[in-house]
Amino acid sequence: MASLRCFLRSGKNAVSLVLRREFSKSSPVSVQVNVRDALNQALDEELERDERVFLLGEEVAQYDGAYKVSRGLWKKYGDKRIIDTPITEMGFAGIAVGAAFAGLRPICEFMTWNFSMQAIDQVINSAAKTYYMSAGQQAVPIVFRGPNGSSAGVAAQHSQCFAAWYGHCPGLKVLSPWNSEDARGLLKAAIRDDNPVVFLENELMYGVPFELSEEVLHKDFVIPIGKAKVERQGTHITLVSHSRCVGFCLDAAAVLAKEGIECEVVNLRTIRPLDVETIEASVMKTGHMVTVEGGWPQYGVGAEICARIMEGPAFNYLDAPAVRVTGVDIPMPYAKILEDHSVPQIKDVIFSVKKVLNM
Amino acid sequence: MQNMLTLIANLFRLGNASKNMGAQAVSELLIGLSEYVDLTSPPAPATPRQPPTPPGTRMVVSTRSFADFTPQANFPIKKCELHHLDEGPSDSAVLTREQGLQYYRTMQTVRRMELKADQLYKQKIIRGFCHLYDGQEACAMGIEAGINPTDHLITAYRAHGYTFTRGVPVREILAELTGRRGGVAKGKGGSMHMYTKNFYGGNGIVGAQVPLGAGVALACQYRGNNQVCVTLYGDGAANQGQIYEAFNMAALWKLPCIFICENNKFGMGTSVERASACTDYYKRGDYIPGIKVDGMDVLCVREAIKFAADHCRAGKGPIVMELETYRYHGHSMSDPGVSYRTREEIQEVRTKNDPITMLKERMLSNNMSSVEEIKAIDLEIRTVIEDAAQYAISDPEPPLDELCNHIFANDAPMEVRGTNPWVKLKSIS
């Protein structure tokens, strides 16, 4: 396979071929791919597929990407398709949107989503609203991507989660992948979408490997935008989460399973448009809900989910109020002990589940 | 000779006569006149007699060129001040009669359209923001005359003039201002958000359009199609940081972008001296070459933009132009425009420096047109504007089921939450 050859060639990554032994001669191959490489492959494949696609941002070309997500791409595609920009977010985000106006398909990288605040006017007023204001005359096929949310020891100005900010705005699609399959399928879908997409990655997930099946590795594998995934079936309580916290929910579920509590874990994948149906169906089954996110509580993703459950049919199935597990409502501190206590941990999820289940 | 003079006398009498005279009689007189005239220009194409128009209609003078009009003339134009350029635009411009009439027609249409918008706004038929362009017509016309329809243009919120020169009919502009379904953006955009092919609005956030324009230029370069993007901003926007970010990248990557500052001396109520430490806007591009242009002279603008477009198409990178111009209205309809400048100043520009008057006088004094012809054009334009205004007033508002459409392009229909949880609205692409 081309994609297999592709990432075997590129630098150091955790690749191990796992051959499942089967009775028949043809054995399906699945591969360990970390989130960074999944993104890298997706970018490579989409750049190859459509020559209108190009990537711009700080250090994306010759540096191979600040977080190495675009490693090898400049060497393969050159200056025209992979463009290093000066440190001028408002300017290059505006340039990217203008290129999208004129029919190209730019991928605009923010080194972290914190820096997007410098360019947020271009994302919202120039990109998100234009199709509506022009009554359908001017589409804006652009992807804004970069790492979002807390990292490790980068302090307050570099740790904010923007899911709620961008999730608030009509005209944007907002995606938040958790694992490698999410990263790959959602990024490909985002690039192929004719609308402005905010793609919120997570720096701490970049190095985490996941097994990818042959189907996922296919070059046309896309995940539908606006569809959540039930990562784990359960009966007692629904845990709704996105990005890195999905992993915490699964870990918490494993611990709780030992005590006989079966958690259903819903991975949102898309923040906007929110897949309320999947959440409702799950809550109607379990009767209990806890949302888990890294961002701040006020006016956040969890707040929206709780409001929607209140307003919809699932409310009548709730046996207890739905609650939110979130980051602490403070700017992110630096010291490790403080930082660790500023973000949701597995024990917080377990505690909240037991509280909601009145145990 | 005697007969010719009689004919001319009759013609003038007709101009003053009542509406009873039939149009056919006029045509006959005109055709008779032409037989007496010495042919100095190429023969006019054979035009059939005009069919008789219904009685009571205004007489319209035929638009075929009268053989005694000068077909073209060479006009000296103001020399442009240059920044980092050894050569600049030509200091003379050739104007053909056809071009002159076309420029006149276009500028006068914009002028009357803006005045009609003023009227409609005062009648509260137009609401919200309305930033009028009257006084600055030579900028929009000169630019359009110097670029191709396949080139690109983006501007800020004082956009009605450019919306017209880029091809949107007056009725669709006025209907957009009155918020009707026949508006160019179906009533969903309003004054500041009108779009058409190769015209990217109409942008409400001061300065944001400049990086956007540089991005369109990037697309031109990426595709190698030899097109340029004209990116306009005002003297008020000229201090925006994002403009310098765009300048930097445009120069670095040699984008085919013509940055144009329309300097009308005031950013809302703030004069340029009170806003900018340096008011030489054509020099503000620093390492980018600049040209200062008389924005009230359509020929000056045209020659400058041609020069600039050639510069960009030759791969030399971006260029900055400053058009010195003036707006008669205040910043918007909610600004009377006299608290920060005197009525005398406005009047002086009107009498001494009006772009439309200047063009008309050039044409008349060089026998490229006649008072009657100009009058007739004015009459035509008035009709067009009246019809457009009628349309804009009588066209229905957009239907409510359009409310949530056009959120996403090329997407399946989706549901949109209404003002309360029980209202579920439909959105289609």
From TrEMBL, chain A:
One Gene Ontology biological process: glucose metabolic process
Residue span, Transketolase-like pyrimidine-binding domain: 33-208
Reactions catalysed, as given in the entry: N(6)-[(R)-lipoyl]-L-lysyl-[protein] + pyruvate + H(+) = N(6)-[(R)-S(8)-acetyldihydrolipoyl]-L-lysyl-[protein] + CO2
The keyword Protein biosynthesis is annotated on this UniProt entry: no
Subcellular localization, as worded in the UniProt entry: Mitochondrion
TM regions (residue ranges): none
EC assignment: 1.2.4.1
Keywords, alphabetical: Carbohydrate metabolism, Glucose metabolism, Metal-binding, Mitochondrion, Oxidoreductase, Potassium, Pyruvate, Thiamine pyrophosphate, Transit peptide
MF GO annotations: metal ion binding; pyruvate dehydrogenase (acetyl-transferring) activity
One Gene Ontology term, aspect cellular component: mitochondrion
InterPro entries reported for this sequence: PDHB_mito-type, THDP-binding, Transketo_C/PFOR_II, Transketolase-like_Pyr-bd, Transketolase_C
Coiled coil: none
Major localisation: mitochondrion
Swiss-Prot/TrEMBL cofactor(s): thiamine diphosphate
Uppermost EC category: oxidoreductase
Pfam families listed in its UniProt record: Transket_pyr, Transketolase_C
Main function: The pyruvate dehydrogenase complex catalyzes the overall conversion of pyruvate to acetyl-CoA and CO(2), and thereby links the glycolytic pathway to the tricarboxylic cycle. The pyruvate dehydrogenase complex catalyzes the overall conversion of pyruvate to acetyl-CoA and CO2.
Subunit structure of this chain's protein: Heterotetramer of two PDHA1 and two PDHB subunits. The heterotetramer interacts with DLAT, and is part of the multimeric pyruvate dehydrogenase complex that contains multiple copies of pyruvate dehydrogenase (E1), dihydrolipoamide acetyltransferase (DLAT, E2) and lipoamide dehydrogenase (DLD, E3). These subunits are bound to an inner core composed of about 48 DLAT and 12 PDHX molecules. Interacts with DLAT.
PANTHER family the record matches: DEHYDROGENASE RELATED, PYRUVATE DEHYDROGENASE E1 COMPONENT SUBUNIT BETA, MITOCHONDRIAL
Protein name as catalogued: Pyruvate dehydrogenase E1 component subunit beta
Organism: Umbra pygmaea
TrEMBL record, chain B:
Catalytic activity: N(6)-[(R)-lipoyl]-L-lysyl-[protein] + pyruvate + H(+) = N(6)-[(R)-S(8)-acetyldihydrolipoyl]-L-lysyl-[protein] + CO2
GO molecular function, one term: pyruvate dehydrogenase (acetyl-transferring) activity
Keywords linked to the UniProt accession: Carbohydrate metabolism, Glucose metabolism, Oxidoreductase, Pyruvate, Thiamine pyrophosphate, Transit peptide
Record function comment: The pyruvate dehydrogenase complex catalyzes the overall conversion of pyruvate to acetyl-CoA and CO(2), and thereby links the glycolytic pathway to the tricarboxylic cycle.
Self-association and partners: Heterotetramer of two PDHA2 and two PDHB subunits. The heterotetramer interacts with DLAT, and is part of the multimeric pyruvate dehydrogenase complex that contains multiple copies of pyruvate dehydrogenase (E1), dihydrolipoamide acetyltransferase (DLAT, E2) and lipoamide dehydrogenase (DLD, E3). These subunits are bound to an inner core composed of about 48 DLAT and 12 PDHX molecules.
Protein name: Pyruvate dehydrogenase E1 component subunit alpha
EC number: 1.2.4.1
Domain annotation Dehydrogenase E1 component: ranges: 106-399
InterPro entries, alphabetized: DH_E1 (IPR001017), PDH_E1_Alpha_Subunit (IPR050642), Pyrv_DH_E1_asu_subgrp-y (IPR017597), THDP-binding (IPR029061)
